[in-house]
Fold:
Amino acid sequence: MLNRSLKFHREHKVSQRCTEFFFSANLRLYFLCVLCATVFSVSAQEVMSVEQAIELALKNNYDIQIAKNRSEISSLNNSAGNAGMLPKVNATLSDNANLNQVNQKFSSGLEVDKNNVVGNNLNASLNLSWTLFDGLKMFATKSKLKRLQEIGELNYKDTLQTVVAQTINAYYDIVSATELARALKDETLVLEERVVLAQKRFDVGSSSKVDLLQAKVDLNEAKSLLLTQKKLIEQKKAELNRLLVRNAETEFTVSDSIPFNYEPKIELNDLEKNNFQLQAALKNVEISKLTKKETFSQFLPNLTANGGYGFNRSQSSGGFSLYGQTYGLSGGFALTIPLFNGLVSLRQYKVAGIQILNSQFALEKARAQIKINFYRALKDFETAKQILKLEEENILLADENQKIALERFRLLQSTTTELRAAQKSFEEAEVRLVSARYAAKVAETELMRLQGVLVK
Structure:
C-alpha cells in the first residue's frame, strides 16, 4: 500500500514537472513570439529625423524642381547671341526648272519662236548680317539678361528656403500631435483607474451610481479624443509625405522632442543682404532701368554691315542667252536714322520711366513687409519661449495636483467632481505645453527663413 502510494506520488510529481516544463516552454515561446512581432513592427516603420526629411524634400519636391528648371532657363537665355551682339549667317540654295514657249523679236531683225524650251536657274549664296551699332541697346539687353539670371537663382534659393521651412513645420507638427496623443493615452490610463475606484466605491455603497457612470462617460470621451488624435496624426503624416513626394500611406515615426538652437541676430542690414525676396526686388529695379535704356536706343541711328558670297547659273535651250553664270563676293552697310514714328518711341520711353518708379515702390513695399514679418516672428519667438517656460513649470504643478486628487479619491477623501477638475486642469496644461513648443518652433523657423540661413 505504501509502495503504491509512493509510486503514485512519484508519478504525480513527474507529471507535475512535465506540465510545469511544458507550460514554461510555451510561455517562453509566447513571449518570444510577442517580442519578435514587436521588433518586426517597429522595424517596419521608418524612424525619420528632421534632417532626413529635409534631405528628401530637397531631392524630390516638385516646387524645387520647377524653380531649378526656371533658373536654368534664365541662365541659358543669358547669352551674347540672345542680346543681339553676334552676327547672323544664312546659307541659301535654290534651283528652279521651267518648260516654256519662247517667242522673241529683236531690233536686229532676229526672231525666235520655239516650243518646249527647257530652262534651269541655280542660285546659292552665303549671307552675313551684323549689327554694329543699335544705340547701345545690345549692351543694355545683355545686362538685363544677366539680372534675370540672377533673379532666377534668387527665386530658386527662396523656393529652397520655403520648402525647407514647410518641411520643418510639418515634421514638428507631427511631433506635437504625437505628444498630444501620448498625453491622451496616459490620461486614458488614469481614467481607467478612476473607473475601477468608482466601481469599488459603488460596490461598497460609499458613492452613488452617478459617479460610476460619469467616470465611464469621461473615459469614453478620452478614448474618442485619442482615436481622433490618431487620425489627425495620419493626416499630418500624409501631408509631410506629399512634401517629400512619397506615397501618402508611407509609414514612419518621428522624434519625441522639439529642439531650439537658434539665436536670431537683430540686424536689419543683414536682413536686407540675406533675404532672397528683397534681393530679387533690387534686381527688378535694375531691370527697369535697363529697359529704359533699351527704349532710348530707338532714338539713335542703327548701323548694320552686310556681306556674302553668291553663285548664280542659268541655262535655256532657246532664246538669246543659252547659258550664263556669275559668282563672287559682295559687301556693304546700311545706316538707319529714325526721324519720326508717330511718337511711339517717346511714349515707350515715358512708360519705362514710370515702370522704374513702380519697381522702386515695390522694393520699398517688400522691404517694409519683410521687416514687419521679421518683427512679428521675433516677438512670436520670444513670447512663445516665455510661455513655454511657464507651461513647463505649470505641467509639473498640474501633474502633482492630479496625483494628489487621485490619491484623495482612492482614500474616499474627495468627490468625483474634484478629481475630474484636477484631471481637466492637467489635460489643458498638456495641450498648452505642446502648443507652446510648436509655436516657438514655427516662429524660430520663420526667423531663419527671413534671414536666409535655412539653406546655405
